[in-house]
Amino acid sequence: MRKAIILLLGCLTGAYCSKDYTNQRVCRFRTGDVGEVRRKVGKYTEAPVDIWTRNPEFVDVRVPASLVDRLEGCEVMIDDLQETIAQTYPDPATQPFLPFNDNSQSQVPEVRPLDLTSSLKATNDIFFSQFRDLETIYTWLDLMQLTFPDLVKIELVGQTFEGRDMKALHISAQNQNLNPDKKTIIITGGVHAREWIGVSTACYFISRLLAGYGVNKRETRYLDRLDFLIVPVFNPDGYVYTWSHDRLWRKNRQQTFYPRCFGIDIDHSFDFQWTGAQDFPCSEDYSGEAPFEALESESWNNYISEAKKEYTVHGYLDLHSYSQEVLYPYAYSCDALPRDLENLLELSYGLAKAIRRKSGKMYHVLSSCEDRGSDLTPGLGSGSALDYMYHHRAHWGVQLKLRDTGNHGFLLPPKFITPVGKETYGALKYFCDFILNPDL
Ligand SMILES: [Zn+2]
To answer: Which cofactor is recorded for it (predicted)?
Structure first.
């Protein structure tokens, strides 16, 4: 009762209302067999089993606290899930642009371009001090476009099931002499709604690329010779839902054939090696009933195939969490050999090394199929954005799973936004240098 009152008060005073995960924990099992863990946990619960991460060495899964003693081999990684969730939401007092989130004001907040010295840095320092909701992120994108009108264009990729805009930022110095082929790097974040650190990192990349152009040699070189297409929030409906209803939501919010279950896993929806759903629509990995059924993947396909067809995509970087891994294609099968493997491995290890040099953090390099478990269970890696982009559009493609290694999992506290941004921006610079290397 007391808790209900506190929650209600929290909602009334403007805090974020979200599904309650009191008495839930996250267990780690030392096995690479995700099917075994699903069966073990599924025996005791009717709810879909929420696998947090897996790799060849371990599987992390959310479980009710009452089960922990009965599940042999469970190492508790997160003891108080509800408290860990609460610490990821920002203090409303730290909003970078007032009057954001003040729904009582019907006026759209006025945003003015920043002068390019201290106020840009000050705004970004506040912006990156906390995770930000969709409205704040989209206003920040507007601000970047207003401040850097010669470099930035916001483009509409498509609309979501709930009618939200899916936005891409096209960054380019439009230097036709130095980039006659429209060489492009594409970066996506937030395909999975709860992986907030991927969203903040994509925004961090935007801030560094723009602030450095005409100031630093490297950024000037990159933007003169490369175009960047960055989608910080690939799954706007899911992202909004993690702020308003359920911090641990993963899929989009699309209606399925089963009325009680919403959401398709966008990263199983792309039309490359797509396999039909073995899972029920309630499952976290539900792929839909046909390729590109998820509106986000379908819109993305149209956008890059039509609106962007003359751009030559040299690099694709998909930001996820967590595990600290650099994953190279393919996800769907370990039998499928990627082209140019030697150079792809050089790129992947180079990205990991660039991160280690910045922060000392270890990121493991492995094939996406091993990470997904599709070597053991066919179908687990089907229809991924990485495979689709690598096969159809991008010469080089990797997925980065960002921090951490499981202490917070998806619930990384906001103090890590900038450190993760910095270390992976080191990797992005390596990626740009790799693509611009004339010997390749
Ligand atoms: Zn993910």
So the answer is: Zn(2+)
Q: How far is the CA of 435 from the centre of ligand 1 (A)?
A: 25
pLDDT of 344: 97
Distance of CA 429 from the midpoint of ligand 1 (Å)? 22
Confidence category of residue 116, pLDDT binned at 50, 70, 90? low
> How far is ligand 1, taken at its centre, from the CA of residue 192, in Å?
5
Query: Which pair of tokens denotes residue 270?
Result: 């792309």
Please name the amino acid found at residue 179: N
CATH fold of 92-250+268-436 reads Aminopeptidase (3.40.630)
Q: Compute, in angstroms, the gap from residue 321 CA to the centroid of ligand 1.
A: 6
| Predicted confidence (pLDDT) at residue 199 exceeds the cutoff of 90 | yes
Q: What topology does CATH give the domain 21-86?
A: Alpha-Beta Plaits (3.30.70)
Distance CA 336, CA 334 (A): 5
Lowest-pLDDT range of 12-16, 338-342, 433-437: 12-16
The Cα 336–Cα 352 span in angstroms is: 23
Tell me the CA–centroid distance for residue 78 and ligand 1, in Å. Answer: 19
Residue ranges near ligand 1 (ion) with Cβ within 5 Å? 192, 195, 320
| DSSP-assigned beta bridge partners for residue 228 | 171, 185
345-394 pLDDT, tens digit each: 999 999 999 999 999 999 999 999 999 888 777 778 899 999 999 999 99
**Residue 195 backbone phi and psi in degrees, to 5:** -90, 70
Distance 157 CA to ligand 1 centre (A): 20
